[in-house]
Design brief:
Length: about 160
């Protein structure tokens, strides 16, 4: 499940991406207070998230009169999966299904034969496929990309 922290982080970066799309010839910087108002999140909560995202290289912070936050790279180059992993950690719903943070379950005698693990790996793979293929720029626009819609249709058919 996506945490409130990750959801707020995605919203904040989406706001920055929208600002960048509105003014592509210059780097769009936005004060934290304006981001917080548009995301409808407490300023201190958002500051902590943006600080974490700055450490991961997703945003830059600028001081001064026209300071604030800006995307560190184009929104077309930031995958949602990378943002979520930076904030929440692995995409897998259980540790034994993770590719990056695998931990065996203490109550499972044989992980290779575990039916729950197999299903959770499919959940992880489907989630990763969607999030790896969705860029920040895609959620900063009001209409979904045809490729995302098609992928969601395929996932829905498989269920």
């Amino acid at each position: 499940m996506l945490t409130q922290k990750a959801k707020s982080g995605l919203k904040a970066l989406s706001v920055l991406a929208e600002a960048g799309a509105a003014a592509p010839s210059r780097r769009a910087t936005m004060p934290i207070q304006e981001i917080a108002e548009r995301v409808q999140a407490p300023r201190k909560f958002l500051e902590a998230i943006l600080l974490d995202l700055r450490r991961h290289g997703f945003v830059d912070s600028l001081r001064g009169k026209s300071g604030g936050y800006a995307l560190a790279r184009p929104a077309t180059q930031i995958a949602l999966s990378d943002l979520i992993r930076a904030i929440d950690g692995p995409l897998a719903p259980i540790p034994c299904a993770s590719l990056t943070a695998y931990r065996p379950c203490v109550d499972c005698a044989e992980p290779a034969d575990c039916a729950i693990r197999r299903v959770m790996r499919q959940v992880r793979d489907a989630t990763a496929a969607i999030l790896d293929g969705t860029m920040l720029a895609d959620i900063a626009t009001p209409t979904p990309r045809p490729a995302i819609t098609a992928l969601l249709d395929v996932v829905a058919e498989g269920s």
